[in-house]
């Protein structure tokens, strides 16, 4: 071979390499919009479903070549092929399961990993894009031995179904222009059609949201389990998403609290993994004040059934929305009225006359505040906490201290507070009740004043140490009672989860921020609760900060069936149950002389302090002990009578405890409440507060007294007890969700407690 032939041969080789390189460049450019470059993640979790799914992926990746489907006339191209092709794979499952990622796992785990992987959406797929037209190659020709993912194959246009089924069975296809050579082909045109037929060695993976027999029959089928049956994997999934998000945000990874994990595991996740990932992203976006914990408060995952039977009062009454969005609620009321009035009340309690018939502040506290606050719970829940003077002083001192000593307040110790905060407020309430009984607080003004000062001091100390209203959320005894009874309210504050999830990315209602749209600048929720995450009224004080901050009108103030979450989405808490029975014991405690007389003991036993203290403790413990004993007896009965756990059913007694407490204070409200004007006149004519310029007028006002007839008082007390018993029986039946005969023991306890309260108050 001479030099000229060698040069010619070398030139031909260079031309072939150049043509192959040019073809490969063009191929990569055409496939680029459809290409999946890598796997996003593996199959996460340790459940048997996750293990089985991983095994299915491995088997699909190691699938041998199908020797029975070898093309006899492969279409020539610069890359070349021998016509062999792997068997198709059909992957189906609900939306949001990352099925495309599973297909990528199969491809990159196979011997085909070095070939391109592309994905097309069948809803947008056109035949010309897939098979080409004339001299214009389609995706199948460019793909060659690569892997094709047909996503959403259930949405494949009807006219393309025969083409895809033929491709799955034989790998054969025809470009569009060559399919219309003749409508009635002759022998010669049939040979031409046979010559124009092409064969694709591409590996085809199909993805669908339901099983489709016509595509699944020639394929290996992989069914992806939904997240609701893989609850054991949620912990691992959340940890993985947290690692990714925190790495992207360049922040340390917080710890998921057990309460947050239980909330996530109690949800069915119709959006599956995609919804869970979005929940984690939103939770990190809302995380504020506590950098090392993700609590249940930053997740919302509430079933749709909790949204039924709601009527948004803000849409029905625009004037109400304007008022709640104004400075009047609650800022002007708090700092223009409550702040000063509370100071006067405490001053009169400490230095004024010391009995309830001579000190109007003591009369306001026991004869007005208690009946009214108990009466308000079924209507407006925990509304009192938004105008509570304890936290007004706490926030005032916090603001002044930050101006005098700029510093970063401590984040909430949520893990500790979630575990022990409820028990601390329970112990605080128990001590208050014992103090009230043993030292006669209701008729000793200065001791009542010191009670208010101690609670205010707790709020101030917590405000100096921690951000926002840590005291209100976790430690306030009055707040604990308010949150418990607020569950029975016929109103609620919530937000539309869809709007919050899809539209909002600032979380001003939760974290605080500048004004946006129609939203106002706020400091965020004072008790760190997002309105879209609320599952009951326990932690919402109706301050309407979220309503003011929201630029999307997502926040709703709804009228609803009273206490509906108690039999739909409620999760019982042990300390709440203990507080509930403590409040039931308080009704007995307030009627100790009558109770002793009922069992044949002399009320004079209470003259001994230590004996009085012991009997008081027994009275506080007795209702819970009786209810628990009834539950134990139920367990000893035949299995057909067994019902729900003790903690869950205990909330059925909530209406009875509320109305029994109201019945007790109704006597004070209807007899001494109407004397407040005369008592106020008596207070101001006392030597310490005598107003000489109004002396004659005040002397005359001391005779003003309005009192209900004893028969009316007895009728209203009896009506309250009957209403409480009936509502408790209905609520217990709703919570138990079982036939009446299975809940008879609980109903008997309710009737027995009602009879006891009736005997103590009406005898």
Protein described:
The protein is an alpha/beta fold and about 775 residues long. It folds into 4 domains: about 25-225, P-loop containing nucleotide triphosphate hydrolases (Rossmann fold, 3-Layer(aba) Sandwich); about 230-300, Helicase, Ruva Protein, domain 3 (Orthogonal Bundle), CATH 1.10.8.60; about 320-565, no CATH class; about 575-760, no CATH class. The strands form 5 sheets. A 5-stranded parallel β-sheet has the order 2-5-8-1-9, covered by helices on one side. Strands 12-14-13 form a 3-stranded antiparallel β-sheet. A hairpin with a 2-residue loop joins strand 3 (about 130-135) and strand 4 (about 135). It starts with a helix and ends with a helix. Mean pLDDT is about 85; it is low at about 65-85 and about 180-185.
């Amino acid at each position: 071979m001479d030099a000229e032939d060698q040069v010619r041969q070398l030139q031909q080789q260079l031309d072939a390499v150049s043509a192959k390189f040019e073809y490969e460049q063009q191929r990569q450019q055409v496939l680029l919009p459809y290409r999946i470059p890598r796997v996003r993640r593996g199959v996460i979790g340790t459940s048997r479903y996750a293990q089985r799914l991983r095994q299915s992926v491995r088997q699909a990746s190691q699938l041998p070549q199908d020797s029975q489907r070898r093309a006899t006339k492969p279409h020539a191209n610069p890359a070349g092929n021998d016509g062999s092709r792997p068997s198709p794979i059909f992957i189906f499952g609900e939306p949001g399961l990352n099925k495309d990622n599973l297909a990528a796992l199969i491809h990159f785990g196979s011997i085909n990993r070095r070939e391109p992987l592309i994905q097309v959406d069948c809803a947008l797929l056109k035949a010309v894009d897939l098979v080409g037209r004339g001299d214009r190659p389609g995706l199948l020709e460019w793909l060659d031995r690569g892997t094709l993912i047909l996503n959403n194959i259930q949405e494949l246009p009807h006219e393309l179904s025969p083409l895809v089924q033929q491709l799955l069975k034989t790998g054969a296809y025809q470009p569009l222009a060559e399919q219309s050579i003749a409508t009635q082909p002759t022998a010669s045109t049939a040979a031409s059609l046979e010559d124009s037929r092409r064969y694709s060695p591409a590996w085809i993976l199909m993805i669908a949201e339901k099983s489709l027999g016509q595509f699944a029959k020639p394929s290996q089928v992989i069914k992806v389990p939904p997240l609701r049956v893989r609850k054991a994997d949620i912990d691992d999934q959340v940890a993985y998403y947290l690692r990714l998000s925190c790495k992207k945000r360049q922040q340390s990874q917080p710890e998921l609290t057990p309460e947050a994990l239980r909330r996530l595991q109690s949800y069915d996740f119709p959006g599956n993994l995609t919804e869970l990932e979005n929940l984690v992203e939103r939770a990190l976006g809302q995380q504020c004040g506590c950098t090392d914990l993700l609590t249940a408060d930053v997740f919302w995952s509430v079933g749709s059934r909790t949204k039924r039977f709601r009527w948004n009062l803000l849409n029905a009454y625009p004037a109400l929305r304007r008022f709640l969005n104004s400075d009047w609620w609650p800022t002007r009321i708090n700092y223009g009225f409550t702040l000063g009035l509370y100071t006067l009340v405490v001053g009169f309690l400490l230095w004024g006359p010391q009995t309830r018939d001579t000190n109007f502040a003591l009369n306001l506290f026991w004869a007005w505040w208690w009946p009214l606050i108990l009466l308000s719970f079924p209507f407006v829940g925990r509304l009192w906490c938004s105008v509570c003077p304890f936290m007004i002083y706490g926030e005032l001192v916090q603001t002044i201290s930050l101006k005098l000593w700029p510093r970063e307040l401590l984040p909430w110790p949520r893990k500790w507070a979630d575990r022990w905060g409820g028990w601390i407020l329970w112990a605080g309430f128990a001590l208050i009740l014992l103090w009230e009984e043993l030292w006669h607080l209701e008729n000793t003004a200065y001791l009542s004043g010191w009670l208010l000062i101690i609670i205010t001091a707790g709020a101030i100390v917590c405000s100096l140490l921690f951000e926002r209203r840590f005291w209100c959320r976790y430690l306030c005894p009055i707040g604990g009672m308010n949150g418990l009874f607020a569950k029975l309210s016929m109103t609620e504050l919530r937000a539309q989860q869809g709007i919050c999830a899809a539209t909002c990315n600032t979380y001003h209602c939760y974290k605080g921020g500048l004004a946006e749209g129609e939203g106002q600048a706020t400091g965020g929720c004072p008790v760190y609760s997002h309105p879209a995450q609320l599952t009951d009224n326990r932690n919402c004080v109706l301050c309407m900060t979220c309503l003011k901050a929201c630029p999307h009108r997502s926040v709703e103030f709804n009228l609803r069936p009273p206490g509906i979450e108690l039999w739909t989405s409620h999760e019982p808490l042990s300390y709440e149950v203990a507080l509930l029975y403590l409040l039931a014991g308080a009704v007995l405690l307030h009627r100790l002389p009558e109770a002793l007389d009922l069992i044949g003991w002399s009320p004079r036993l209470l003259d001994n302090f230590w004996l009085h203290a012991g009997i008081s403790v027994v009275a506080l413990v007795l209702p819970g002990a009786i209810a628990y004993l009834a539950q134990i007896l139920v367990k000893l009965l035949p299995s057909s009578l067994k019902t729900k756990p003790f903690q869950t059913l205990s909330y059925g007694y909530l209406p009875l405890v509320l109305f029994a407490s109201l019945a007790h204070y109704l006597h004070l409200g209807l007899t001494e409440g109407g004397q407040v004007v005369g008592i106020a006149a008596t207070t101001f004519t006392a030597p310490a507060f005598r107003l000489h310029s109004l002396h004659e007028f005040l002397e005359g006002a001391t005779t003003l007294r309005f009192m209900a007839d004893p028969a009316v008082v007895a009728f209203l007390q009896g009506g309250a007890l009957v209403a409480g018993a009936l509502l408790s029986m209905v609520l217990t039946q709703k919570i138990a969700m079982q036939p009446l005969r299975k809940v008879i023991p609980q109903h008997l306890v309710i009737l027995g407690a009602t009879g006891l309260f009736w005997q103590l108050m009406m005898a």
